[in-house]
User: Which sequence fits this backbone?
């Protein structure tokens, strides 16, 4: 994680932050998703749409859908990942291999759960978003 963020001051992480990997010999990867910009002008939703449901153009909805679609594509492509215990040193990726970390339980958090469920990804719930 520290290697991924080195030199990326715009990431929002303080340069003196460090992260401890408890399984530092195991393979893994970190994907940092850039925020989606708000649309310059959004049309108001039709009067009969619920007011508490975000629009499809909402940045949180768009980012959540991108994340869920990416995970679904990796699973559908039968992506192989390193596994030292597997025959040949690799195995097919499973949904449980993905961990999504968010800063807070903001609207993005709930939109990711909704998007993962829409993409037919098994979701462990709001306390543990294990896909």
Assistant:
């Amino acid at each position: 994680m520290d290697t991924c963020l080195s030199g990326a001051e715009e990431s929002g992480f303080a340069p003196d932050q460090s992260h401890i990997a408890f399984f530092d010999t195991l393979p893994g990867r970190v994907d940092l998703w850039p925020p989606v910009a708000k649309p310059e002008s959004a049309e108001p939703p039709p009067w009969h749409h619920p007011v508490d449901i975000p629009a499809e153009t909402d940045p949180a909805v768009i980012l959540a859908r991108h994340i869920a679609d990416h995970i679904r594509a990796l699973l559908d492509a039968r992506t192989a990942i390193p596994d030292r215990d597997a025959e040949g040193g690799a195995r097919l990726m499973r949904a449980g291999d993905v961990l999504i970390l968010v800063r807070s339980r903001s609207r993005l958090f709930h939109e990711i759960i909704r998007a993962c469920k829409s993409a037919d990804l098994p979701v462990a719930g709001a306390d543990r978003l294990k896909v």
Observations:
- The chain has a mean pLDDT of 81.
- The longest strand covers residues 80-82.
